[in-house]
Give the backbone structure.
Amino acid sequence: MPILEVENLSISFNQYTAGLRRKNIQVISSLHVTLEAGEILAVVGASGSGKSLLAHAILGILPDNALVSGTIKYNGEVLNASTQASLRGKEIALIPQSTNYLDPLMRVGNQVRTSVKTGDATVAQRAVFKRLHLQQSVEKMYPFQLSGGMARRTLLSTAIVSDAKVIIADEPTPGLDPVVMKEALNNFREFADNGCAVMLITHDIESALTIADKIAVFYAGTTVEVAPVEDFTGNGESLRHPYSKALWRALPQNDFIPIPGSQPHPSALPTGCLFAPRCTMATPACSEKQPDMQNIRDGMVRCMHAT
Amino acid sequence: MRKMLLGKLGIFLLLKGLRMLTLLIAICFISFLLVKNSPIDPIQAYIGADMLKVGPEQREKIAEYWGLDQPVMVQFLNWGSALLAGDLGTSMIFRRPVAEIIGERFVNSLVLMITAWVLSGVIGFVMGVLSAMKKDTWIDRLIKWYCYTLASTPTFWMGLLMLIVFAVWLGWFPIGLGVPAGVLAADVTIADRIEHLILPAITLSIIGVANVALHTRQKLIDVLASDYVLFARARGERGFILFWRHGLRNVALPAITLQFAAFGELFGGAVLAEQIFSYPGLGQATVEAGLRGDVPLLLGLVIFSTFFVFAGNLIADLIYYAVDPRTRESRMI
């Protein structure tokens, strides 16, 4: 049984435009994603495709003006605001992107200790710092004194000490040098091998492919395909969705051919398939209705032409 | 490392001292010129009602004795050198040394200002925090409404209102003065003094609250919308714990700084409040010195208030310097 299931998740924001006219902006639409224990799922997609919001929605920390529909299940149990609140930091942990997510006026050691739920906080914090090769003096530092690598490891250690079963890492790799990046990715692999489920949110397909088990491809606020990592090979023949194929072929080490056009803005989404305006396989039927997720060859895809 | 930190602090204080010095010189010069060019005639102010009995020759004699016939710059230097020697001159109204009067009045004002300062700081901070934590609820709207109204209320009007309601109608507090009238100085008790202090102090604090409250509210709203509070919530923190761990420390520092930097406004407010309540403090002395042309006292008060406001700002800077780890430990890396 999957440890975390997101079904039909939609998120929209109410925005006041001119005067008092309200506009509903759909940032995530009918999204499906499942997470298994011991597995790394990489959620990849361009910036602005709503990846971080997915993480915030699972934790229930979206801003007040967000409207959420759909269900999120943890261990088969449907979550609501209060169960989400009780799982946050205990069962589900977030690893955020940058030092900005650390309190600027609090010593980092103390911040890590607040994540410890059981046992001696100081002992747990020192042990995890040792494990991540952070010197003990680091615990007395303030966030502005940390280097990029140290900040990354500090953020990671908040998740480790929390003993969470599900780890959601939001863009953990940008700006890291290859050595630190490899170390960070290995840490996620370690999490998964210890029985955790890891959701790795990133726009860096290449590094995601090196450690993930499954890849969910995100486009304009929804998953267009969930495929095992082995399918990302050759010319992308084994991939199911035209966008995933195009994304794969756009990588420098492959054909390096960009897709014409750009991702639609959340306020101007097309009515049918979100990718139809840029798709070479599009037929009139594609613009009528958004296709449902279907299972094809051990993966999921949202395209009526998929094979 | 400690030595380096102290060295840095030394340079900081030295620079501040230099700035203080230049500011004082400029203030002295400007106020001297202003008084010099004002319609106040020092001789008339000195002699008062007996002016008619003084002939032109006598006037010239007095002017010569005081050095009033010399060029302005010479007069300024004369006054300045006396000032440097610690001689602020003699007050014409009180016929006592200016330094003595300022010292005596300052003690009275200090009690009033500190009470108002602490009250407005604490109440304002709590109101701001409450307002931000309960943003967009009726509590927030009520506090905001109160602050906007109070921020645009003149101190003297508020003081009059307090007097009418609490002293005249309800009769809970005395109408004015710092001690009861007709009682020997030796018989005045601390309770008497406190009773006379309450209304002016409350008037000053009610007005001072708005600034801190609105500032704290906005700052805390920003903090609550920050990435680190989002992350704290993602780790399961919420409510009071969240505020205590991440809100308070990030909001308290700017609020304290603001409160120290508001020394100037406090002084300005005290001038008006003391006048309304006939409270014998520095503010009342300033008004009297101005109205009755007591030049030495007026200049002495100007210098003293400059010093006072500067000290407030300096303390604010020092607190930031000492408390904020980003400035305190920036040398460690």
The mean pLDDT of chain B is 81. Residues 2-37 of chain B form the longest helix (36 residues). Residues 2-84 of chain B form one domain. Chain B touches chain A through 24 residues (CB under 8 Å).
